[in-house]
Design goal:
mainly alpha, 2 domains, two-stranded antiparallel sheet, 8 helices, Protein ARV, transmembrane
Length: 261
């Protein structure tokens, strides 16, 4: 089987020493020593998992577009491929872009249909207006940190069998952080709100925002189930509890930030 490794430059395969079990099977999650065997200089053969007897990682021969489609469809194998078998160098940049996107939507009152919190100044001063954007950014950075912290805390309390080291040798907190960022990619669907905000009603925008947030929660449950190796029902309980506490404490934080407007 001839493979061209189309993910070069996007999500490069992790590089490990031969014999080390630092990859995982995307089907069952079991550590494997490698993903492919080189037959010749131009031919590679995907290795089958010893446990499930399926190809360890079929995505190494797929185009990026196919992988992105499977990510949108909340595929566990696609999540395992990105989190465990790929070198996600720019994932933190995606997280920063998403926080800035949410902050901009919040600053422009795009979320006014579902919240009464606003950092806009009523004074016609460019500096005060710009300061509201920075406060919105702090708001969402705090929200991300709270969500990650509560998910980690509840996972440790309610799912005590969480490994300290994941299948590819990275620490569990590190992989959970990557998972939360990866689940947030669905928030790019907020972009249409910015584009068509003037032509939409508040009810329509509120429905759009709620649907995006529901999709984010579902993807976060799916990724948490992959990273924590627990049932979806337990992941759902952990994520929902984390969201409830995040909303409570973030309301307190927003009250303090509004004093600076």
């Amino acid at each position: 089987m001839k493979l061209t490794l189309p993910l070069q430059g996007y999500f490069e395969l992790l590089r490990h020493q031969p014999g080390e079990k630092k990859y995982v099977c995307i089907n069952c999650g079991r550590p494997v020593s490698g993903l492919y065997r080189q037959i010749s200089s131009t031919v590679l053969k995907i290795i089958d998992c010893e446990k499930c007897k399926n190809p360890a990682d079929k995505y190494i021969e797929f185009e990026v577009l196919i992988i992105l489609i499977d990510l949108i469809l909340l595929s566990k194998p696609a999540y395992r491929h990105i989190l465990y078998n790929s070198d996600c160098k720019n994932l933190w940049k995606i997280g920063c872009i998403l926080i800035l996107l949410e902050a901009y939507c919040f600053w422009t009152d795009a979320f006014r249909g579902i919240t009464s919190i606003s950092y806009r100044s009523h004074v016609n001063d460019p500096f005060l207006s710009e300061k509201g954007f920075y406060l919105s950014t702090v708001h969402f950075v705090a929200g991300f940190c709270l969500l990650y912290g509560f998910i980690y805390l509840f996972t440790r309390v309610l799912h005590r069998t969480v490994p300290s080291v994941t299948g590819n040798g990275k620490s569990y907190p590190h992989m959970l952080l990557h998972g939360v960022i990866l689940a947030s990619i669905g928030k790019f669907l907020f972009i249409p709100i910015i584009i068509w905000r003037e032509n939409s009603t508040e009810t329509g925008m509120a429905i759009h925002i709620v649907l995006v947030l529901v999709y984010f929660v579902i993807s976060l449950v799916q990724i948490h189930s992959v990273v924590s190796e627990c049932a979806r029902s337990r992941s759902c309980m952990i994520v929902i509890l984390a969201f409830i506490l995040k909303a409570y404490f973030l309301t307190r934080v927003s009250g303090l930030l509004q004093e600076f407007v």
